[in-house]
Write a structure and sequence with these properties.
By secondary structure, this protein is of the alpha/beta class. The model has no long low-confidence stretch (mean pLDDT 95). It is globular. Helix content is 32%, strand content 26%. Strand 1, helix 1 and strand 2 form a beta-alpha-beta unit.
Length: 339
């Protein structure tokens, strides 16, 4: 058994932080000491862990004394400032923000796909987690890539509001109520009404009309798969769903993979569940993925417009496997093999 570690959760009261806390309890992660850290507004609150009420402390520069492992889930600015302080105090950081993802010295890891990259954690003392949309996508791409090597990937993501935190969840809930009662819905979190609507732009536009979310999908996938020249394009859309990202993925491979072979490969892969019987209305749905650890894959069919093409529909809980579970899985491997 791994030795008990002193663990900190930065952003413990946020959506991802509370999910990490819950999953640590569900998986009986052995923590000698658990320190919950957050901003000024949450200081003094209590969160429950394994039947015990734990005080939430205010994040400070000296918060990491004696900490072995720190989960960061409080935004890029916090991670950029405090991860180096935590590392200097002797902690290994697992960061769910975008602060370190593309740093060449920082492993970007989805355990079922590239757990071996965790061996490089010592270079900077930080392990990064991809965006939730990338995590579920690479889980579906890796089995196909291993057998037939990817040539090109085209993805459109339909991303839930919970990725933006509790304010976005509240905004969708409030707007639905207002509109159903004949009142206007004023946007605050998003630039337009999100209820009963789709917003085809997530994040700032950075390059040639692509948003940060779209560029991240491409860059992160290339890094995780170790394919820096993989031809890939993405469109990221925000949809009025509380929990669960959905993705339409078109894949071209160098070798031929039939739809039946793809179902077999994906069905045997860790972290995936194939739900694919459209004649019985069985296919992945966001409402079914919510609360699940597995990534659901379905609508698997050959793309007749190219020689070696496949279409996939991939759905996952963006807070669970898309962030918190992935972080805890990384922590389990680090605790067992590296710490």
């Amino acid at each position: 058994m791994p030795k008990p570690l002193n663990v900190a959760i930065v952003g413990a009261t946020g959506a991802v932080g509370t999910e990490i806390l819950q999953i640590l309890g569900e998986r009986d992660f052995t923590a000698a000491d658990l320190r919950l850290l957050a901003g000024e507004r949450s200081e003094g609150n209590f969160l429950e862990f394994q039947g015990e009420q734990i005080l939430v402390e205010r994040l400070a520069k000296d918060s990491f004394a004696g900490i072995d492992l720190a989960f960061f889930c409080a935004g890029e600015g916090v991670s950029q400032e405090y991860c180096p302080l935590a590392v200097a105090a002797g902690a290994l950081c697992i960061d769910t923000s975008g602060a370190w993802r593309m740093d060449p010295k920082v492993p970007l890891v989805v355990p079922e796909v590239n757990a071996a990259d965790l061996a490089g954690w010592r270079a900077k003392g930080i392990v990064a987690i991809p965006t939730s949309a990338t995590i579920q996508m690479v889980l579906a791409l890796k089995p196909l890539h291993d057998v037939a090597k990817l040539r090109r990937v085209v993805v459109a993501t339909y991303q839930a509001v919970s990725e933006c935190g509790s304010r976005a969840i509240d905004e969708l809930r409030k707007q639905v109520g207002e509109l159903l009662n004949g009142r206007p819905a004023a946007p605050e979190v998003y630039p337009h009404q999100i209820a009963f609507n789709c917003l085809p732009l997530i994040g700032d536009i950075l390059d040639q009309g692509n948003t940060r979310a779209e560029i991240s999908l491409v860059e992160e996938t290339r890094k995780i798969l170790g394919e820096p020249n993989l031809a890939m394009t993405a469109t990221a859309v925000r949809v009025p769903v509380f929990y669960g990202h959905s993705e339409a993925i078109n894949v071209e491979t160098q070798g031929k993979v039939s739809a039946d072979q793809a179902r077999e490969l994906l069905g045997a892969a860790a972290g995936l569940s194939v739900v694919d019987d459209p004649t019985r209305n069985l296919y992945p749905l966001a409402v079914d993925a919510a609360g699940q650890d597995l990534v659901l894959v379905g609508r698997i069919r050959e793309d007749q417009s190219v020689p070696n093409g496949l279409n996939l529909w991939v759905v996952a809980d963006n807070l669970r496997k898309g962030a918190a579970l992935n972080a805890v899985q990384i922590a389990e491997i680090l605790a067992a093999d590296y710490l």
